[in-house]
Amino acid sequence: MSSLLHQALLQIPRETLWIADENSRVLLQPGFQFDGDLLTNRWDIAELAQGKVSRNFFSDFHLEELDRKYRRIIYSVSKEKAVVRHVIDQAPRFLGEGGELVLLGEKQSGIKSYAVKAAEHLNGTKQLQKHGNEYVSTNRVAHPGAIEPTGEADYPHLRSLPELGNLFSKPGLFGWNKIDKGSALLAQQFTTELPEDGAHVVDLGCGYGYLSAQLAPLGNFHFAATDNNAAALLACRKNFHTLGIPGVVLPSDAGDELESGAADLVLCNPPFHQGFQVEGDLTDRFLQHSARILKSTGMALFVVNEFIPLAKKGPRYYSEVQLVNKERGFCVYRLRP
């Protein structure tokens, strides 16, 4: 997808918005330059784009913050369906008459269905071109004022969900409306792995803050929760505020910007998907940064899918790696520097 996206970006006018997600990371290397604006919900993408684009925005796809109209919006579709539907819904508001919404994706991304949805929304006919295993859908806005919303207008709103114990979450966040089985298994260990009062706890890859919310009532701790995803940060901040959890919620890429040697405990349920791909290096990055963040007397608790070889990866960064629980396809490890 990167080659097709790169070609598209090189052939577009300056009045272009590039909506970039995790699939775009490979392009943002030294020497890359793009004359248009970039909007992303990924902190790592926003950081990589510094100095490489005209204007750079990090948010949960809040297009209204851009305060302008574009001749073209180009988007390599995300894995999260709600995000794609939201972009299709909002794009006509920020395209002038004759402006184009360009969607790119491989077959498994759902691009064919999105092409139909975009054409229906923009009152046009489906335009879909195949380039090998990749597709490009181009949809032109004929009469912007006549376009009605698709029903995705509630995408930005946080929701208090009974199935999460009334924690707040929202679409755009992986597993947004459920309790992850691995995280629930990790939380079961808190009573036996409880840190001392006053401990500094880092929730690494916090999502909507489930692990912090489970640990906070068990003692007097200070939390630093961090995630790469803008929707996760919004939800986690809301839950910290609602529950009175003491601490901060910060953007970072696998904890790369957190202070070294400051944490007594790191909690982590690391992702193993980067967009549509399984990405094994993600586990290594979370292990590396968690080890850097910890005090020499600290401890990390990781939960991973059983096919992730953390027992082999962990010793690269920790002197002690111990499996403490294994259930329902997940493994919980205790790690010490």
UniProtKB/TrEMBL annotation:
Keyword GTP-binding attached: no
Keyword Iron: no
Enzyme kind, highest EC tier: transferase
Keywords for this protein: Cytoplasm, Methyltransferase, rRNA processing, S-adenosyl-L-methionine, Transferase
Pfam families reported in the protein's UniProt record: MTS, MTS_N
CDD domains xrefs: AdoMet_MTases
UniProt-listed Enzyme Commission number(s): 2.1.1.172, 2.1.1.174
Ranges where the Methyltransferase small N-terminal domain occurs: 39-122
Any one GO molecular function term: 23S rRNA (guanine(1835)-N(2))-methyltransferase activity
Domain Methyltransferase small: 167-334
PANTHER family documented for this protein: RIBOSOMAL RNA SMALL SUBUNIT METHYLTRANSFERASE C
The name this protein goes by in its record: Class I SAM-dependent methyltransferase
Species for this entry: Microbulbifer echini
